[in-house]
Amino acid sequence: MTFPRPPAFRLLGILAVLIVALSATLLPTAYAQSSKAPLKIAMILWRGETNVEQGFRAYFDENNIPVDLTIHDVARDLSRVPAIIDQIRKDPPDLVYTWGTGITSSVVGKYDAVDPAKNITDLPVVYVMVSSPWKTGIAAPAGQSRPNVTGATHIAPLAAQINAIRAYRPMDKLGVVYNSREDNSVSNVADLTELGREMGFDVLAAPLGTDDEPSPDDIAPAVAELARKGADILYIGPDNFIGNYRDTLTDAGFANGLAAFSATELEVRDGHAMLGLVSRYELVGRLAASKVEQILIGGISPADIPVETLDRFSYLIRLSSARKLKLYPPLSLLDYAEVIE
């Protein structure tokens, strides 16, 4: 299935050719069609705009590509997504941008269980901050594709994350507190457990929400239990619930002498995780914007645009947390890590 360029773009594209023929020297930048109507994009966000969206906006600004962004913030409440989809259908944009596994899964469905009555199937969708698109069924398996969906992921390969932890300190037991009601978290823990058999470490898992909605009050007791079992470090994966209560987790870690490693940026940069191997959110937004450009300006079908992650990751160290735990980084790490006070 191919998504044609919007009619306004086709007409304006002809005008642009005439303009180029008459006065190519007047074109101001690399994107020579800045006079075109803006790309109309509906953004469905988990908790308002983040650095991901700043990077998304910056990409278009720097390339002089006009965009008209409509923000739909679910405010951490997925039950709001169906009403937003209804609203989008009444005034269709050129493209829909989705943030996170929960929103994206609600908007596009699983690749083998799409319901056109509930999911968006007739507009291109570009997602960000989906940690395991294949494991959660958002992306089709290898050799297949989805006609209207592509995206940018943000998680470094798990083996690289484990190597990053071990570059800082020895690790044989990885403690993970996670929300068992989030598909991305369950998938990530399963992958870590499998990787542990290969790389020689045990995953000590502490699932929350097995009987009822998870509560932040359950975090500290779970961390204490992991410490009692001999966890060497706490692992913070792609988990919205833990992300919301990251300070509760890291404070419990401090109380039990446990540092925290994070696979996502905010838990180190804005929280108190001691280290992380992360994608910079701003760069994830730029990667997503480049895919939007390919679809709406390049005329490329989302099915032909691969789901990708960044090819470089940042090693972050929060020195204040290292001081608190008296776990100072090896000097060799300081050659390439970004140290945050």
Automatic annotation (TrEMBL):
Pfam families: ABC_sub_bind. Coiled coil: none annotated. Signal peptide: none annotated. Gene3D superfamilies: 3.40.50.2300. InterPro entries: ABC_transpt-TYRBP-like (IPR007487), Peripla_BP_I (IPR028082). SUPFAM superfamilies: Periplasmic binding protein-like I. It comes from the Bacteria. This is ABC transporter substrate-binding protein. It comes from Thalassospira xiamenensis M-5 = DSM 17429.
